[in-house]
């Protein structure tokens, strides 16, 4: 029995170590998801207007799963050290439930990321930017959100349109309905602005003189943070789940070996 | 022959404006008092175009273009504004269609207003001394403006799922299945 006892000790040690890692990763996951939910780049209104903000839902689930993992890892450590069958069983079942939730979060984040294409944002920008007539309050709220977000995006990132400034010329838009083509070939926020926020050279901007307007597209500025967000939730969660898989398998094995 | 401006200008052709190169070093031996006009016409009016009609007069009003006036004249200026300076690196362009304020003002029939449709249009420069045509350029090639596609035509085709997402889903599902199997075996 001494040999298997030694084996059990090693397994206990490994399980405790595994649970410590799970606990720390749980905290990290919570922190990461809180960071994403706080929307440091101000892009949430764009997602809200697509009426599909699954990557945010995934991040919210991530916050709670992170806490759960931390709490359960403590339970796991206690259960392994005490070799208590009931506690171990409770641990395994609760961990499986948490596992299922985290799986849902990862898959949601990864799937929704594939949904966020340039055409989606292009269509949204054209249909909502500076849209004045609204169908209902919700529609108005979404259009205002999109307008404000795009104004900030264009000014801070010195960009125009989704692919480039000619998006405003290639397609009809709500903006075009409000503002005529000769005075506003593209929104004035696409112009190079001075400190007061007015165009440095409005005629140069309207002509499209390189240097007086921003012709580069904003898609990189949008997709960069969103990709980080989605992949951060999805792949970090995946890594945690892979590790948790092994710890759980080990715990199940340990449970079956623990004497009553 | 009048030509469109350089392709580096992003606003070279829009839905209602276009940008021409200024006629520098084109008119020589022109009297300082002569007025150079830009004539904008529909291609069908080019053949029978009469240089003698008064700019802004009947048949030449911008506001009636293109229904009853098949051409109009605008951007009048003297040769002094088109100095022939081959060393200058200034951007020398003319934006046709930039004056929106007088577009509906019938008291300004020589308004440089936005063009009413995608065209095509042909232009030439005509120098008048009083009401006598003294010099002109050839007609330009037909210029067609941009037509905007409706934004509803942008395809939102279901982007295929990326390989990463499929791998992630598959692996996680398998792992979860193994865990559940293990739980069942355990109990």
From TrEMBL, chain A:
The chain crosses the membrane at residues 12-37, 57-81, 88-110, 233-255. GO terms for cellular component: membrane. It comes from the Eukaryota. It is a multi-pass membrane protein. Keywords: Membrane, Transmembrane, Transmembrane helix. It is found in: Membrane. Its main location: membrane. Gene3D superfamilies: Tetraspanin. InterPro entries: Tetraspanin/Peripherin, Tetraspanin_animals, Tetraspanin_EC2_sf. Belongs to the tetraspanin (TM4SF) family. Heterodimer with uroplakin-3A (UPK3A) or uroplakin-3B (UPK3B). PANTHER family: TESTIS-SPECIFIC EXPRESSED PROTEIN 55, UROPLAKIN-1B. This is Tetraspanin. The gene is Upk1b.
UniProtKB/TrEMBL annotation, chain B:
The chain crosses the membrane at residues 163-186. The keyword Transmembrane applies. One of its GO terms (cellular component) is membrane. This is UPK3L protein. Keywords: Membrane, Transmembrane, Transmembrane helix. It comes from Thinocorus orbignyianus. It comes from the Eukaryota. The keyword Signal does not apply.
